[in-house]
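Board notes (copied after class):
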Amino acid sequence: MSEARTPAQIEADIVRRREQLAVTLDEIGVRVHPKTIIGDAKARVASTVDQTAGRAFVTVNRVVTDVKGRFVSEDGAPRLERLVPVALLAVGVVGLLAMSARRRRD
């Protein structure tokens, strides 16, 4: 069986628990304060934006590297057998757009 506690021990225990409760209430007050909530929300949004921007950068970098690999050889020389058809296609599309715009004006 446990020993009986003295009134001084009980009072010390009550004081200690009050102090713990006060600390807990202060922490809760900080957590539910509007500035804290807004700050936390801003931090979450910033983190999400950073992650999204990072993923976008990696994706764009991968695409650019892939496209570059298709049109430039490992030694850095352009692959004319691939560049010439793409250039001709681009010139043709621009020409068609120019003719279309000219017809609309007339």
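Comment from the instructor: The chain has a mean pLDDT of 92. The first helix runs from residue 7 to 32.
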